[in-house]
Amino acid sequence: MSCEKAESLLHGYLDGELDAVRAVEFERHARGCPDCTRELDAQQSLRARLRDADLYAPAPPSLRRNIRERLEPRPDEGAASAPRPGRWRWLAAAAVVTLLATVPWLAFRETRQGTSEGTLAAAALDAHLRSLQLGHLTDVVSTDAHTVKPWFEGKLSYAPPVVDLAAEGFPLIGGRLDVLEGRTIAALVYARRKHVVSVFVWPAENAPETAPRSSVRQGYAWIHWSHAGMRYWVVSDVAPAELEQLARLLRR
Ligand SMILES: [Zn+2]
Fold first, then answer.
1. Ligand 1: centre distance to CA 42 (Å)
2. How far away, in angstroms, is 192 Cα from ligand 1 center?
3. DSSP characters for 97-135?
4. For a surface tag, which of 17, 62, 138, 197 has the fewest beta carbons within 10 Å of its beta carbon?
């Protein structure tokens, strides 16, 4: 990968928008390229500073009132009256003001709650669906944990625990690299009858042990927990009770 290409992927990488293959290619280039490493570090520290600084100031209520007053027709302006030229300029200005007041806040909320449950649930579901749509279920196809586990070696900075649960009704299909929140992580793929289950695993980084918490939305179920130094996020369209069963098996 060229530096130019790496530079064009940098923001996508930091936003967790690259697919696993491109994210890995980017990381591989950045590791061996001092220039790109420097740029990556600079962007990461800028983002960290933005996250830590309290930059959001709510727009005062008077601004909303002001804009509304400008937008609502005055009594002397009937609906049939032609808009005066100056009015459209005001509408445009008001729209810009509203955007300026809203957009950074939305962007900021995303950054601040980067690790929140809702954000991670959405990211995990995205990654799961992406793998189904792109036909990128697995990078390594194997029902053998002893093949899948070594496959991750050298591709990740940690060793994900891999177990086969075929006897318990969750046969291992394989594994792949995936991207959650801008970091490349292990995704283990299990089958449950005709359904696919993605199990995302990455180091918990001092996070306390947490009991499994599950949620359901639009036909998909999630369950997540931290255990033995690893965080687990599991997504599938199987019944929530089945994911709870899988969580119990993975926590043994
Ligand atoms: Zn470079």
1. 14
2. 43
3. HHHHHHHHHHHHHHHHTTT-HHHHHHHHHHHHHHHHHTT
4. 62
